[in-house]
Amino acid sequence: xxxxxxxxxxxxxxxxxxxxxxxxxxxxxxxxxxxxxxxxxxxxxxxxxxxxxxxxxxxxxxxxxxxxxxxxxxxxxxxxxxxxxxxxxxxxxxxxxxxxxxxxxxxxxxxxxxxxxxxxxxxxxxxxxxxxxxxxxxxxxxxxxxxxxxxxxxxxxxxxxxxxxxxxxxxxxxxxxxxxxxxxxxxxxxxxxxxxxxxxxxxxxxxxxxxxxxxxxxxxxxxxxxxxxxxxxxxxxxxxxxxxxxxxxxxx
Length: 252
Fold this sequence. Notes:
By secondary structure, this protein is of the alpha/beta class. Helix content is 38%, strand content 18%. It starts with a strand and ends with a helix.
């Protein structure tokens, strides 16, 4: 059975989309069939893979809101083992359109069940909120990967997210568990080192050994519509995500 991992944090700008694209790409490069689902109305995962989000006829919106079979929204990427279900700004109104629907939290899960075993890894990139779209991601997933920026307010809001995961597990998705916490945007400063120490003290083995550094190539690669391993495979960011992919594989 394929593993479904949702990448979440209600705080924006912490590296969720960067992680979704580059972790999936690194696993695909390692020969693991991978699927990316863009569940964020900003659609940065979609554009970061070189897809024109304004030219799409079928997106995750049509699957989650309109009931289109998820297979009909699949798009290939430049990597043989990596596929994507794209998004565009149609997704902006999804939460309002779904609010009165029965079992609205299960819309993505039910569609995804039809193809999940065709991929070894499926990653869901969520918006920076704990709204209905993120809830759909949490209900559809087996595990949660939390991207956490190495900054002063890193732990602020983390307890709320962890509490939400527990609530979803208890009420909607019993198998859901924390896959790991990924520290991102690390700089060689006392502040970054202190954040790393604090997070490891609080969460122990749940924190990945791999730490993602601030890296120019990681910021540039999306503007070229490419994962960083295709844009600049020797850069520190690419090497970090390759290490993370190995760690994810080792955790099973």
